[in-house]
Amino acid sequence: MEKEKGKLWVHTASVGEFNTIKPLLRRLVAKYHIILTYFSFRAKEYLKAQRGFFHELYRLPIDLPPLVRRFEKSVKPDAILIMERELWPSLILFTKAPKVWLNAYAKESLLERLLSKRFKLILTRGEKDKDKFLSYGCKEVIACGNLKFLLEEPPEAFLRFSEGKLLVAGSTHEGEEELLKSIFLKLKADFPELKLVIAPRHISRAQKVAELFAGLKVSFKSAEEEGWQVLVVDTLGELFSLYRYASFTFVGGTFVPVGGHNLLEPAYFKKPVLFGPYTHKVKDLKDFLMEKGMGFEIRTEEEFYHLARKLLSGELALPDFDLKDHSQKVLHCYVHALGAFLEK
Predict the structure, then answer these.
(1) Dmax over Cα atoms in the chain, in whole Å?
(2) How far is the CA of 9 from the CAs of 62, 95, 120, 127, in angstroms?
(3) Distance between CA 47 and CA 43 in Å, rounded?
(4) What are the structural domains of the chain?
(5) Packing angle of the helix pair 15-28, 323-342 (nearest 10 deg)
(6) pLDDT of residue 157
(7) What is the predicted pLDDT for the residue at 1?
(8) From CA 60, how far away is CA 130, in angstroms rounded?
(9) How far apart are CA 81 and CA 278, in angstroms?
(10) Three-state SS across 213-276?
(11) Residue 198, pLDDT score
């Protein structure tokens, strides 16, 4: 008879936190029965479509002692895994299963100091967070790294592009495409073979973006044509893979006050990542890439042009940093630490 799987209650706040933990859940779901809870009402429909990463899905009970105790009794978890800052007092204080805090980082609040001691294992984003939790009196704390940096090889996207220099601009917004056109035309005067792949954040804008580049040889990704100078991506789910073809990249939502989009995807293919000053939504990713020498903040069109020129000419070389290798090390640390803990 097949051995019954152990049960893990995994709690995430919403879609973002769920997507962060997905690579880890992919490893856990084969070995454990995963009971996933979430907080945000808006996450429900998205999570229902992600059934391969868990076995049961519920919204987190209201954070009152009788309700969380009743839920725990009904699902009978062997352990409770909590993502990031979901520090619900009743959930942590009144459940009996041993608790693990994943992707933990310290903000030094009084509630954090009190509740952190109730976790049997804390896996942190970095050494500074580890030291802070140890200073609170937490017993078992391991610095594994940031789960947000876990990227896995995307399906390959076919691009009719053989050789030459290529700028891939991803997740762009209105106002940024005009900037990119100006930069692209200036750079083509220096590098005539340069081409541009531009992926608007919302593909419903693809036709409008194409019209902006009138006068150049413009095509759409869905057409799979050759001979283009500007290729507008009008397909879903291919941007990450398209970064592999780039000489350098620009990530949108950063020259308009959106706050930025995924800065890590180009770096996964060892491509330099340029972005504007509006990065408040992705500050941790920006800081990480700038520390590694892979990310470059640009504040003006003139800065953009001069930096791009240095990258295309080879005047500015990148450090030998492998984000793929880093991702695997982070994932291995989480899998190994959780496995050792759960199999005690």
Answers:
(1) 71
(2) 16, 11, 15, 27
(3) 6
(4) 6-150+327-342 (3.40.50.11720), 166-313 (3.40.50.2000)
(5) 70
(6) 85
(7) 37
(8) 27
(9) 33
(10) CECECEEEHHHCCCCCCEEECCCCCCHHHHHHHCCEEEECCCCCCCCCCCCHHHHHCCCCEEEC
(11) 98
- Burial level of 191, CB count in 10 A (0-12/13-18/19+)? middle
Q: Distance (Å, rounded) from C-alpha 338 to C-alpha 123?
A: 9
Q: Quick check: 165 and 247 in contact, CB under 8 A?
A: yes
| pLDDT < 70: residue spans in the chain | 1-4
Handedness of CA 36, 38, 41, 44 (dihedral sign): negative
User: Residue written as tokens 């969380």?
Assistant: 68
CA 344 to chain centre: 31
Among residues 341, 342, 330, 340, the alpha carbon closest in space to that of 24 is found at 330
Dihedrals phi, psi of 17, to nearest 5 degrees = -65, -35
pLDDT in tens, 306-334: 999 999 999 998 999 999 999 999 999 99
Q: Which two tokens stand for residue 157?
A: 């996207």
Long-range contacts for 112-115 (Cβ within 8 Å, ≥24 apart)?
112/87, 112/136, 115/87, 115/89
* The pair of three-digit structure tokens given for residue 177, joined into one six-digit string: 């495409």
In whole angstroms, what is the distance from residue 251 CA to residue 259 CA? 11
State both tokens at 195. Answer: 């081409």
Distance between CA atoms of residues 39 and 83, nearest Å: 12
Q: Counting Cβ atoms within 10 Å, is residue 69 exposed (0-12), middle (13-18) or buried (19+)?
A: middle
Total H helices, total E strands in the chain: 13, 14
For CA atoms 291, 297, 85, 32, the dihedral sign is negative
Closest by alpha carbon to 272, among 237, 302, 314? 314
- Total-model pTM: 0.82
Name the residues annotated as catalytic.
17
